[in-house]
Every structure is written in structure tokens, then in C-alpha cells.
Amino acid sequence: MSIRVRTSEIHGRGVFAAKPFKVGEVVGHYRSRKTKLTAEENPYVIEVYDEEDVLVEYRLGTNEFRFINHSSSPNLEMGDDLEFIALKDIAQGEELTWFYGEEFEAEMLQDG
Questions:
Q1: Helix (H) or strand (E) holding 109
Q2: Which of 41, 42, 49, 58 is the most buried (most CB within 10 A)?
Q3: Contact 59, 33 (CB under 8 A)
Q4: Which residue range(s) make up the domain with 39?
Q5: pLDDT of the residue at 25
Q6: For residue 65, what pLDDT band results from cuts at 50, 70 and 90?
Q7: What does DSSP assign to residue 90?
């Protein structure tokens, strides 16, 4: 397994690299199923948008990547097929992070 879930200093549990990753490498996939729940109702739900930035569906995470934490300076980006791709070289043991989006970022700044 190339990732591990453990306690995070960012929030609750997080996803950590169990091996080094190179920039551009696929780290893993956000496995999920369609749901009617929203992100406000369940923290493991992500919103999927089309090319025109129109909300297509909600996806409920079903694997370890549901524990990935937000960062304003992430080391991963999400590709079209819900795969996580390294934005930089990632060291073994480093927490994997993803930018949840502008709306989430604005809410964090407002609450924080």
C-alpha cells in the first residue's frame, strides 16, 4: 500500500505517503459512490463539476482517500477520473493534502 491513514496535525485523521512520490505521479484514486448527501451533511462527500463548472453529482468516499485534508498549499491535485496527482515531489511520511476549493477556503477564513 502506498498510503497510510493516521492522526493528522491538520484535522482528525489524514492520509500520509507510505513511499516517496515524484511530481506528476498518480498517488491513488478517490473511490466513491454516488450519493444524495451533500458535503454539508457528510464530510466525506465531494462535489463533481463538469467543464463548464456545473455541479454534476455528489460522491461519497469509500476508501482511505476520504480522509485527505485540505491545504491552501496542497501537494496533490485531483484529475478528471478522481485520481490524485502529485504537484511536487512528496517524501515518505509526508501528509497528503488537496485544495478543497475557493468556497471551502473562504469558509475557513471566516470561521478562523
A1: helix 102-111
A2: 58
A3: yes
A4: 3-111
A5: 97
A6: very high
A7: B
Written as one letter, the residue type at 65 is F
Q: Are 82 and 30 in contact (CB under 8 A)?
A: yes
The CA-atom distances, in angstroms, between 11 and each of 1, 32, 51 are 22, 21, 31
**86-111 pLDDT, tens digit each:** 999 999 999 999 988 766 545 555 55
Domain count of the chain?
1
Identify the band that residue 77 occupies on the pLDDT scale cut at 50, 70 and 90. Answer: very high
- State the cell numbers at 39: 458535503
Could you tell me how many residues make up the chain? 112
**Which triple of cell numbers denotes residue 37?**
448527501
For residue 70, the domain's CATH number is 2.170.270.10
Q: Which of 99, 89, 29, 87 is nearest to 59 (CA)?
A: 29
pLDDT in tens, 8-23: 998 889 999 999 999 9
- Evaluate whether 56 touches 50 at the Cβ level (below 8 Å): yes
